[in-house]
Amino acid sequence: MFIDTHAHIYSEQFSDDKSGLLERAAASQVGTILMPAIGSQTHELMFEREANSPVQCLSMMGLHPCSVTADFEKELLIAERYLQTRSFVAIGETGLDFYWDLTFKEQQLAAFNQQMDWAIAYNIPVVIHSRNATPECIEAVEKKTGRGLKGVFHCFGGTVEEAKAIMDLGFYLGIGGVLTFKKTGLGDVLQQTGMDQIILETDAPYL
Fold first, then answer.
1. Measured distance CA(55)–CA(38) in Å, rounded
2. In what order do the strands lie in the sheet with 198-200?
3. Can you tell me the distance from the alpha carbon of 39 to that of 24, in angstroms, rounded to the nearest whole number?
4. Is the N-terminal amide bond of 50 cis, ω within 30° of 0?
5. 10 Å Cβ neighbour count for 183?
6. Would you say 9 and 206 are in contact if contact means Cβ atoms under 8 Å apart?
7. Global confidence as pTM
8. Which of 2, 62, 95, 155 is the most exposed place for a label (fewest CB within 10 A)?
9. Residue 129: which residues within 8 A CB-CB, separation 6 or more?
10. Is residue 190 within 8 Å of 162, Cβ to Cβ?
11. Does 125 sit behind a cis peptide bond, omega within 30 degrees of 0 on the bond before it?
12. How many angstroms separate the CA atoms of 66 and 46, rounded?
């Protein structure tokens, strides 16, 4: 059985074919799909998919960095209340995204730090989004060293040096469809790092 460690399978982009998609996944020996949270606007959709699926779909809880705005603390409070009422497979996806907009850069970092603290407190992995911000995410994780933080750098697309730094922290590299893109160079990176700390993901529907 395969595990897809990162798929937004509850996305409305799948609304016309949710059952068929999951049935095909099961037929292809995908036994488990881990679902990252985005924000309060999609939590209920995620829980609905968790409860009604031919494949085991397991929810994470967190706030996506692209969903961080001026009132991010309200979103974190909603996530924290869920964490207090039920179990989740991981915290995430959280992290930093400096690709689209830097307006809430400081707020993203504050939200990321809070969610890493949750991962430590609940002893579950953290799933890190690090678009155009891998060095900054590594630095933030390094500050938590020795506190039991564990997890994965989702959709890794960095350098050999970054990959090795992440692995040295005990984290995994989430690898998906980007590996098949001709211009990424990710295949060359992975040849130099090895396969011991790699997990598979699709980031469906995005990649």
1. 21
2. 91-97, 126-131, 151-153, 172-175, 198-200
3. 28
4. no
5. 5
6. no
7. 0.95
8. 2
9. 64, 65, 92, 93, 94, 95, 96, 97, 154, 155
10. no
11. no
12. 18
Of 70, 62, 76, 14, give the one whose Cα is nearest residue 202.
14
Cβ count near 177 (within 10 Å)? 13
Count of other CB atoms within 10 angstroms of residue 46? 22
